[in-house]
Amino acid sequence: MTIERHDFTTGTELAQSLAEVVANKLADAIATRGHAILAVSGGNTPIRLFEVLSRQPIDWNLVTITLVDERFVPVDHERSNEKLVRDHLLREHARVARFVGLCNAASTVNTAALAASSRIDGLRRPFDVVLLGMGLDGHTASFFPRADRLDQAIDPTTRALVLPIHAEGAGEKRLTLTLPLLIEAQLLVLHIEGADKNVVFEKALAGDDEHEMPIRAVLHHARHPLQVYYAN
Ligand SMILES: O=C1O[C@H](COP(=O)(O)O)[C@@H](O)[C@H](O)[C@H]1O
């Protein structure tokens, strides 16, 4: 496992620096392959980053944005990661990007996962940029400790793309991209803010049990150095 750590005094400085790095990577992909793919996390941490990123002057009409995970709620629900992306990232210059969500009007999380798998299967791999977050329980994407499908979700050899997943600590049922899609990203970023998350991250580095702290599956299998962006 190789980690490259980037520490910042404030979340604002982090957002500015990371937004430029992500935009440059997307612009490189556009120059080389004609389009770029960005997969982002939900939750609260990326809001400031999304807003700075949305103002980066790149060819957003050639960028596809998707999610690493989603809560199985209506897409206009306050806890929807899609809503977060629509409100904070798909605006300014980035409003013209193509968005591929994980939720649809499916009546069950299983059928939503099947539909999302076929949409994700249509995207070029490896993704150019994957932005991960981490919860205080050591989850990333929707790889929660004790989740019902955690074994398959963090299997680096699984052929599944999107899984329905449920865990006690996760609130609603979830949809998650599986580990292979994340670890093969050309630029893989873990974005964490706050001293409490830093403590959790140090604990993850100090142990091996991926079921206890599923973020370790990313640490163990990332194909390129994991870029850790941290602000107090
Ligand atoms: O539930 C989720 O939580 C994590 C971390 O969120 P945060 O609010 O602590 O930043 C997030 O990475 C994930 O995408 C989201 O679904």
Automatic annotation (TrEMBL):
GO terms of molecular function: 6-phosphogluconolactonase activity
Gene3D superfamilies noted in UniProt: 3.40.50.1360
Pathway annotation from the record: Carbohydrate degradation; pentose phosphate pathway; D-ribulose 5-phosphate from D-glucose 6-phosphate (oxidative stage): step 2/3
InterPro entries: 6-phosphogluconolactonase_DevB, 6PGL, Glc/Gal-6P_isomerase, NagB/RpiA_transferase-like
One Pfam family named in its UniProt record: Glucosamine_iso
EC number(s) per entry: 3.1.1.31
Domain Glucosamine/galactosamine-6-phosphate isomerase, first and last residues per copy: 12-220
Keywords: Hydrolase
Catalytic activity: 6-phospho-D-glucono-1,5-lactone + H2O = 6-phospho-D-gluconate + H(+)
Enzyme class: hydrolase
Domain of life: Bacteria
Family per record: Belongs to the glucosamine/galactosamine-6-phosphate isomerase family. 6-phosphogluconolactonase subfamily.
Function: Hydrolysis of 6-phosphogluconolactone to 6-phosphogluconate.
PANTHER family (UniProt xref): 6-PHOSPHOGLUCONOLACTONASE
Protein name from the UniProt record: 6-phosphogluconolactonase
